[in-house]
Amino acid sequence: MTDSLTRETSVSDSVKGIVEERGIAMLPSAFKGLPKKVWNWFLTRPSSTHALMCAAVPGGGQIYNKKYWKAPIVWSLGLGCTYAITRYGSLYNEYRTAYRDFMSEDPLQYESWKAFVPRGDDAKDYVGNDNIRSRLQKGTTMYRRNRDFSIILSCLVYLLTLLDVYVDAEMVDYDISPNLSMWVADPRFATPIEGSIPIVGLQYSIPF
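Above: the chain's sequence. Below: its structure in token form.
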């Protein structure tokens, strides 16, 4: 009984090994050893190229640079910008549609602009009303401007996150030692040429 169980276990192990080998062999060469490559990729010293690639996902570059506390800030900024674009875009579409319908030849057949009529009043009395027309026109202009500004601000925020990721990756080996020393090199005097006028000069350098 024990021998049969041992043989069944060995057979199952061999079959499992063959399946795994064939499964790996069926994968493209680029995917072989991919988990190990990805793990080593994150364990190596941060690279600005890799950091920018990870920054394609908001917060990914900060996590790659091991600046984990910055990731929630990036996510919060992204959510705020997304909300602003969505909110102002929705209001712009609402006012634009209402203004277009109000300025049509038969505005009574549309319901979009009637929401701007005072409650309890008849919409027929407000056809061609200058106050509603001005309100809809100003709202369309204002919310379109706010939406465009939100888009521009979102692009600037994203560029700043990319700059932050790049700087963090490049400055990982930067020496921030408080040792700010200065020394004076040995003076060197050139041999004067006969008949020439001696010239005194000063040279300094700041090493990084």
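The radius of gyration is 35 Å.
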